[in-house]
């Protein structure tokens, strides 16, 4: 069987496949050929020559970067194999956001699976994670790769938001959520919990929310909050309502201009009280689009690879856990990927 380091190699630009001559999620400069796991900007950049990804990821990249974000694109549905210079490539759902995928490489009897970012819990806005069997090398993220990170039930966090809304009906509830994936997920969970009122959104969410709606993900009635001087009067209508906005909008006075705002934030990092305090968050919502410690370790046990390679985050703890389990493991030390969109 081929040695794994001959099929995939960590480089400053990202993971490189020499026999296939392509990169996985390259983020440092444009490359001739890229396979992209999902549409977050720390994994999917514009300017590459050829890009292969799930159709939803390609649509998201076009939505964010314009239709000409790459010289050529190839859409690949889940489970559909394609050969790139003799390397068979196929995608399996990652459960991270709409279109997110694990990238599976089969070559000369060796199977390597790159998870990209993933989670295992229910998400009504994307396909659920599917473990890939008969895997020799699993390349796993480790954003929350410490035993302290055990995320609560998402439904319970949504109920906390709705309880606060009912308790303080005169206050605007401003929820910080990353613009791609997290914002739409929070909105859809609110709908499933019975919140049928219009949900107000920051203008930067408008295009992505419209895309989610266009592929059949029902987000209900969304109202864009106007900007500029006219916004002050319009924001009075948000009293007692939910407003969803990207984290960057909370750095100035955008959220503070709403009537008596309750500042909430949806992120796995909200389990760390100091982070919530630093951001001035009154209602921390522990809602993550990444696997927590139990999901990470359960995935390794289910996939049962001969080797575990760990990247993106708390690598050492997961590597050490794997070694104590009797597994071969190594950290990759890839840089350039953002843990704040979690």
Quick synopsis:
By secondary structure, the chain is an alpha/beta fold. The chain folds into 2 domains: 187 residues, Ribonuclease Z/Hydroxyacylglutathione hydrolase-like (Metallo-beta-lactamase, Chain A, 4-Layer Sandwich); 132 residues, Rossmann fold.
Structure description:
GO terms for molecular function: RNA endonuclease activity. The protein is α/β, with parallel strands linked by helices. It has two domains: 4-148 and 290-331, Metallo-beta-lactamase, Chain A (4-Layer Sandwich); 154-285, Rossmann fold (3-Layer(aba) Sandwich), CATH 3.40.50.10890. The longest helix is centred in the middle third of the chain and has 14 residues, at 154-167. The protein has helices at residues 4-7, 55-65, 154-167, 182-192, 206-214, 231-235, 273-278, 293-303, 315-324, and strands spanning 9-11, 14-17, 22-24, 33-35, 50-53, 72-75, 82-84, 87-93, 101-107, 110-114, 137-142, 173-176, 199-201, 222-224, 242-245, 262-266, 283-285, 307-313, 328-331.
Descriptors:
single chain; 342 residues; alpha/beta; Metallo-beta-lactamase, Chain A; Rossmann fold; 2 domains; 7-stranded mixed beta sheet; 6-stranded mixed beta sheet; 9 helices; globular; RNA endonuclease activity
């Amino acid at each position: 069987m081929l040695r794994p380091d001959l099929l995939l190699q960590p480089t400053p630009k990202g993971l490189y496949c020499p026999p296939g001559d392509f990169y996985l999620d390259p983020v440092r400069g444009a490359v001739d050929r890229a396979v992209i796991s999902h549409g977050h900007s720390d994994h999917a950049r514009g300017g590459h020559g050829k890009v292969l990804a799930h159709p939803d990821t390609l649509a998201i990249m076009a939505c964010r970067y314009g239709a000409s974000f790459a010289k050529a694109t190839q859409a690949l549905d889940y489970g559909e194999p394609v050969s790139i210079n003799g390397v068979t490539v196929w995608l399996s759902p990652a459960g991270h956001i709409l279109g997110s995928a694990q990238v599976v490489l089969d070559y000369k009897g060796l199977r390597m699976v790159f998870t990209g970012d993933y989670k295992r819990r229910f998400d009504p806005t994307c396909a659920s994670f599917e473990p890939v069997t008969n895997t020799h090398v699993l390349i796993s993220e480790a954003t929350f790769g410490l035993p302290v990170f055990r995320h609560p039930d998402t439904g319970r966090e949504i109920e906390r938001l709705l309880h606060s809304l009912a308790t303080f009906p005169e206050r605007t509830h401003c929820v910080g959520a990353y613009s791609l994936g997290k914002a739409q997920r929070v909105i859809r969970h609110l709908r499933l919990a019975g919140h049928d009122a219009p949900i107000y959104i920051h203008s930067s969410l408008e295009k992505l929310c419209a895309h989610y709606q266009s592929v059949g993900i029902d987000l209900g009635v969304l109202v864009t909050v106007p900007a500029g001087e006219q916004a002050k009067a319009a924001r009075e209508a948000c009293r007692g309502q939910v407003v969803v906005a990207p984290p960057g909008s909370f750095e100035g006075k955008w959220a503070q201009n709403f009537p008596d705002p309750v500042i909430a934030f949806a992120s796995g990092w909200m389990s760390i009280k100091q982070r919530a305090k630093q951001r001035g968050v009154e209602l921390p919502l522990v809602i993550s689009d990444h696997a927590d410690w139990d999901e990470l370790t359960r995935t390794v046990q289910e996939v049962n690879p001969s080797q575990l390679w760990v990247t993106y985050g708390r690598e050492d703890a997961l590597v050490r856990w794997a070694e104590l389990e009797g597994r071969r493991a190594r950290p990759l030390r890839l840089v350039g990927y953002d843990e704040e969109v979690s």
